Amino acid sequence: VAFSEKEIRTEKIKALKAIRIYNEEEVLENFVRGQYAQGELDGVQFKGYREEDKVDAQSETETFVAGKFTIDNFRWSGVPFYVRTGKRLTEKGTRINIVFKQVPVNVFKTSVDEPCDDTTLPPNVLTIYIQPTEGFSLSLNGKEVGQGFETEPIKLEFRNSAEMVENSPEAYEKLLLDALNGDGTNFSHWEEVAQSWHIVDVIRKAWDQTQPDFPNYKAGSMGPKAAFELLEKDGFEWI
């Protein structure tokens, strides 16, 4: 295992090249786009995107995207990667949720009245918080004390305090220091950028062939209904 600038860049490029490139039909099946309409968040009314200043009243610009990526290599084969990002959503933040697979046979249950069924227990989840605070949490199913087989949720969590975040260097400060030190680890290689755009261009081309039904979600919500259905058809849900 090596952690040099060259090795890290090489692995990032390899991972991007392993992302499956969809055809037009697969793009429409695995990606959802959206644009926000009028809505309310925390008691504040927001305009729809097309009502914003200097925005075309018939604009088809996306303000939301959700999708499913598949990486075709030995390590990640069969593991779906779901991404979601947008403007005017319920909350603003960046995090990664790693949802662990259910065990083949489940002997526990959520309550006395529930059967021992794989579908009744929530999954164990590792969450990595990136913004606005950094940290992690681990949500587990723990057996309740006693003779039964009932479980209760257990959550282990750590987040940097507001004071710690305020006194820490900004992201761009770290990059400036890396540049001064000649360390390109956190900078994108041209091949990495080109492969990223290749993936995006395929999605863009497929979208350009269809007419979007905009707007399709309210400001203050977590996106269009189709984004939730995207995971539901695979038996999952957004966390």
Number of strands: 11
Which CATH class applies here?
Alpha Beta
Mean pLDDT score, rounded? Answer: 90
Largest sheet: 4 strands, antiparallel
Strand order of the largest sheet: 7-8-9-10
Label the structural class.
alpha+beta
Task: Choose one word for the global shape.
Answer: globular
- CA-CA gap between termini: 33 Å
Number of helices in the DSSP assignment:
6
How many independent structural domains? Answer: 1
Low-pLDDT stretches: none
Strand/helix succession: HHEEEEEEEEEEHHHEH
Instruction: Kindly report the CATH topology.
Output: Dihydrodipicolinate Reductase, domain 2
Q: CATH homologous superfamily, by name? A: Dihydrodipicolinate Reductase, domain 2
How many whole angstroms does the radius of gyration measure?
Answer: 22 Å
Query: Can you tell me the CATH architecture?
Result: 2-Layer Sandwich
Percentage of residues in helical conformation:
25-40%
Task: Give the strand content.
Answer: 15-25%
Explain the overall architecture:
This protein is an alpha+beta fold and 239 residues long. It has one domain: Dihydrodipicolinate Reductase, domain 2 (2-Layer Sandwich). 27% of the residues lie in helices and 25% in strands. The protein has six helices and eleven strands. The protein has helices at 5-18, 24-30, 162-167, 171-180, 190-208, 225-232; strands at 31-34, 36-37, 39-41, 44-46, 64-70, 80-86, 94-99, 125-131, 135-143, 151-159, 217-218. The strands form four sheets. The protein has a four-stranded antiparallel β-sheet with strand order 7-8-9-10, with no helix packed on it. A three-stranded antiparallel β-sheet has the order 1-5-6. Strand 9 and strand 10 (151-159) form a beta hairpin. Helix 1 (5-18) runs parallel beside helix 5 (190-208) and helix 2 (24-30) packs across helix 5. The protein is globular and about 65 Å long. It starts with a helix and ends in a 7-residue tail after the last helix.
